[in-house]
Specification:
The chain is α/β, with parallel strands linked by helices. It folds into two domains: about 375 residues, Glycoside hydrolase/deacetylase (TIM Barrel, Alpha-Beta Barrel), CATH 3.20.20.370; about 110 residues, no CATH class. Helix content is about 40%, strand content about 15%. The strands form three sheets. Strands 1, 4, 5, 6, 7, 8, 9, 10, 13, 14 and 15 form an eleven-stranded mixed β-sheet that branches. Strands 2-3 form a two-stranded antiparallel sheet. A two-stranded antiparallel sheet has the order 11-12. A hairpin with an 8-residue loop joins strand 2 and strand 3. Helix 5 crosses helix 7 and helix 17 packs parallel to helix 19.
Length: about 500
C-alpha cells in the first residue's frame, strides 16, 4: 500500500506523549504541504464537462466524541464505550457503526472493479480518527487507507477537512478556530501521509454551521485559506446575496464566492459549494442528489457553460436509512449509471474539488462566481459607513439590530473581539470560553517567542482538553451524563493550566 505516514509527524512520538493524538508540533511543515497548488483531480479525472449536463456530489460525515469514561476515567471514544456497554440504550449498534466507518473502503473497489464510476467525499472528525486508533481498529483504518492512498482509487474518493474536535464554528473561541483546523491536518497526515493531506482542499464544518458575526467569519475564512483550503461547504439558508435576498433557485447549484468583511473593514473571500436543504440522511441514503441532478442543466458563468452540481452531506452512520438503505442504493445507482452508458456523460457523480478544477480549467474565473455573504450581514452593513468601518460602528449596529429587530440573530465572536485574543480574559465566565482564554494566556507569548513550544507535552495535553470541552455533543445535552463529561474535561484542563 502506498500510504506513507507523514515523516515530520511521525517524529513526534515519545513514550510520555504516546497516548496523545497528533494534533500539533509541526505547523510550519504542515503549512508547506497544505499550501501546494498542484491540481488534485484534474490530471486523473475521467470526466469531460463538455459532455455533462449536471453532477451530484455526496459527502458522508462521521463523528464519535471523546469522553472521560474509560478505566480510571481514561479518555476513550464513545464508540469504545458503546462496545464495552452493549446493553445500554442503542449501544448494540456499535458494530454496525464501526462497519459504517469502514465500508466505503469496500464499496469503492467493488464498484470500480465492476466498471462503475463512483464518487464519495469523506468527513471524519479528529475525535473519531483518534478513537479508531485507540481501539486498534486497524481493519477500519486499513480499509480507509486503501481508497485514500492506492493510486487507482484516488480519482473516486475525496477527503474533506474539518474541525478536529467537532466544534461548531460560531461558538468556537475565535483564536481556537485555526488550531482545530491545523490539528485535523496534523492528525490526518499522521495516518494517511503527506501526499494524501496535499489532496484535501474542501472543508466540511461540523453541523454545517456558518458564523455571521463579521469578525468570526473573517477569521474563519482567513484560517481556512492560510491552511490551504480551496472551498467550503455551506448550508443554503446560512448565506444571502449582498442585497440581503435569498439565493435564486439555480444559484444554489453553481459555486458561489463567500465574502467576509470584518470590523476593521478588511475583506477576504473563499469559494463555497452549497448544500441544499432537506432530510439529509434520507436524501443521501437513497441517493436523491442523483435524481435531483437529472432535472438540472448547464448554467452560464461569464462566457462559459458549466454543469450544475447538486451537493449534499449526511451523517454516514446515524439511523436505519444510513445503516440499511445507503449500502443498497449507493451500489445500485452507480450500476444504473453504468448500464445506461452514462458513466462519463449526461448526469454523473463528481467530487467537489474535481468539479471546481474541471470548470476552472474550462475557463471559469472564481472571481466571477456570484457573491454571497453570511445571512443577516446585509442588515449590519446597512447601518455602517462602508468607507469608514470601525469595531465601534459594527458593534453599535449589532446592538441596535438586537434591540429593534426580533428577526435578527448573530452567531459568533465567542469570548473576545480584541485581536490580542487574551486581553480581558479574566472576565470570561462560560467554562468553554474561560478554558480557552486560560490556554491562550499561558501559551500564546511562549509560542510567539519559540515555535517549538507546540511540540511540548504540556502544550499538547492542554490543547487537547481545550478542544475536547468544545466538542458540540456536550453543548446539546442539557443535564445528565454528557454534561458531567464536559465538567470533568473542563476540570482536568483547568488543572493543567493553573
Amino acid at each position: 500500500m502506498n500510504c506513507r505516514p507523514s515523516q515530520v509527524i511521525s517524529m513526534t512520538a515519545t513514550i510520555s506523549q504516546a497516548n496523545l493524538p497528533n494534533i500539533c508540533g509541526w505547523e510550519t511543515e504542515i503549512s508547506l504541504v497544505t499550501n501546494s497548488h498542484q491540481p488534485v483531480f484534474l490530471n486523473t479525472s475521467n470526466l469531460n464537462i463538455e459532455n455533462i449536463n449536471a453532477g451530484f456530489a455526496c459527502a458522508l460525515h462521521m463523528h464519535q466524541p471523546t469522553i472521560p469514561a474509560g478505566i480510571n476515567g481514561e479518555l476513550i471514544s464513545n464508540i469504545q464505550h458503546m462496545f464495552e456497554h452493549p446493553h445500554d440504550g442503542d449501544n448494540h449498534n456499535a458494530g454496525v457503526f464501526a462497519w459504517c466507518y469502514s465500508r466505503i473502503g469496500e464499496f469503492i473497489p467493488d464498484l470500480v472493479s465492476q466498471g462503475c464510476n463512483p464518487r464519495i467525499m469523506l468527513d471524519y472528525s479528529g475525535n473519531l480518527l483518534w478513537g479508531l486508533g485507540q481501539m486498534q481498529r486497524e481493519d477500519v483504518i486499513n480499509n480507509l487507507k486503501r481508497v485514500t492512498c492506492e493510486v487507482q482509487y484516488q480519482p473516486y474518493v475525496e477527503w474533506m477537512g474539518t474541525m478536529w474536535s467537532h466544534a461548531v464554528v460560531p461558538s468556537t473561541p475565535i483564536p481556537d478556530i485555526k488550531l482545530h483546523i491545523q490539528a485535523w491536518q496534523h492528525h490526518f497526515a499522521s495516518i494517511f501521509g503527506e501526499d494524501a493531506l496535499k489532496r484535501v482542499k474542501g472543508f466540511s464544518p461540523p453541523e454545517m454551521h456558518l458564523p455571521n458575526h463579521p469578525d468570526t467569519l473573517f477569521e474563519y475564512v482567513k484560517a481556512l485559506k492560510e491552511c490551504g483550503y480551496k472551498w467550503l461547504m455551506v448550508q443554503e439558508h446560512s448565506v444571502e446575496n449582498l442585497d440581503g435576498s435569498a439565493l435564486p433557485h439555480d444559484q444554489k447549484y453553481i459555486p458561489n464566492k463567500l465574502t467576509a468583511r470584518n470590523s476593521q473593514g478588511e475583506i477576504i473571500s473563499i469559494t463555497v459549494l452549497i448544500k441544499t436543504q432537506g432530510s439529509d440522511t434520507k436524501l443521501v441514503a437513497q441517493m436523491q442528489p442523483y435524481f435531483e441532478a437529472k432535472t438540472k442543466n448547464k448554467q452560464q458563468i461569464g462566457n462559459v457553460n458549466i454543469p450544475s452540481l447538486v451537493t449534499q452531506i449526511a451523517d454516514g452512520e446515524n439511523g436505519g436509512v444510513m445503516m440499511n438503505e445507503f449500502p443498497r442504493d449507493f451500489v445500485r445507482i452507480y450500476q444504473e449509471i453504468r448500464d445506461s452508458g452514462g458513466n462519463n456523460t449526461g448526469t454523473v457523480a463528481m467530487n467537489g474539488t474535481e468539479y471546481l478544477e474541471l470548470i476552472e480549467a474550462a475557463g471559469i474565473n472564481p472571481e466571477d462566481y456570484p457573491e454571497v455573504q453570511a445571512v443577516q450581514q446585509h442588515k449590519i452593513w446597512q447601518h455602517v459607513n462602508l468607507d469608514k468601518v470601525t469595531p465601534e460602528a459594527v458593534n453599535n449596529a449589532i446592538q441596535e439590530l438586537k434591540a429593534n429587530d426580533h428577526q435578527f440573530h448573530i452567531d459568533g465572536a465567542s469570548w473576545t473581539n480584541d485581536l490580542s485574543w487574551v486581553k480581558g480574559y479574566e472576565n470570561v465566565l462560560e467554562p468553554m470560553n474561560k478554558l480557552s482564554a486560560m490556554f491562550h494566556a499561558k501559551f500564546d507569548k511562549l509560542v510567539e517567542q519559540d515555535a517549538s513550544v507546540t511540540k511540548r507535552e504540556d502544550y499538547q495535553e492542554a490543547l487537547l482538553y481545550n478542544f475536547l470541552v468544545q466538542t458540540s455533543c456536550f453543548r446539546y445535552w442539557g443535564q445528565g451524563t454528557w454534561t458531567d463529561y464536559a465538567r470533568e474535561l473542563y476540570r482536568r484542563g483547568e488543572e493543567l493550566l493553573k
